[in-house]
Amino acid sequence: MRALAAVVAAGVAALTMAVTARVAGRIAAVGAGLLVATAGASPFIESFTLSGELLASLLACASMLAFVTYLRNGRREWLVVAGLLTGCAVMLKQSGFDAGAAAAVYLLLTRRRAGLAPVAVLVGSALVPVAIGAVAATSLSDWWYALVTYRGQADSIVTGSVSARLDMARDSLPAALKALGPMLVLALPGLRRSPLLGRIWVAVAALCVIGGGNFHAHYYQQLVPPLGLMAGVGVAAIWEARSRAWAAAAGAAAAVALAFTAPLWFDSPAAQARAVFPNDPHLLSDGAVVRYVRSHTEPGQRIFVLWAAANVYYLADRDPAVRYMWYRNIQAIPGALDEARAALRSSDPPALVVVENLPAGIDRSGETGRILQDRYRRVAVVSGVPIYAPRH
After folding, report:
1. pLDDT tens string 132-159
2. Among 336, 335, 337, 346, which residue's Cα sits nearest to residue 302?
3. CA distances from 190 to 230, 246, 378 (A)
């Protein structure tokens, strides 16, 4: 998974360079490639993980390259390719429409009424992969809920309290600035000469990050390609103007980013986890928990991590007793909590229940806690994590 993430990230860097070369020249492309491969690969935005944002970025960049090719030669088939790639990006991550949306806005701004026809081709092509996904689904309503309704009711900028979303945004900004600070600084000197398409792309990508609502660090990966393009233009501007002031500012930003990042290279895995994933303390104990689960269960037996730590299932190679493996799933999806309780009460209960989070964190009625007390016994506490087994 790490190796695949590295390959995908290298592809994003190469495609960003290709797009930048076509809209801003060779020097800008070199600068964009260097920045995407360094600042854009910062651990503070979890760039080493094979996230949906990283996978979607690869197709979004390919879509933007196809669109830029269309602008250069006017051949409509490249517009179709751009739309298809945008649709595929959306099927990997719902926010993966940034390149396609930027292309559509660009056409409408620059061509006005004449841009309606190419926008229709672009959007129609993007809907093809989405339609294939809908047709292939065993249940259209379940498919729609998973891709659209769930995000709207549980995890988006329009759900929950505004103050909570602002707190999440504020908490995420230090990590984002540690990673993307050099790009932001370098984008400034080239802002006036930057291509309109690049500015629109950055704006749409920023809206996609905000729209997710939760402001997880890996959300900011979506900003890396368009911000890399803009920073590459800034590099070209500094190079041509021989501006010592901007060169010094860029060097200072790079030094600050390096000062935050370099110590992680020499830290222990536990210290790295605390620095990169401050809101996921379970990562510090998961290794010991996984070893216990593997040694006290057999392959084929199911376990339940209450309420969430999906990596434990994967690393222990044990199937989940409940199909929802993320905290927010059980918290937000109608019927998910009842399904979890039913699994704990069933005649074929999970072989082990790993209590990563307090039962009352989601089930404030206390019913889940009573089920554990009545039907299970605590068999171990591993690195502070209680583990239960069925009484029988």
Report:
1. 999 999 999 989 988 888 877 666 676 7
2. 346
3. 7, 11, 61
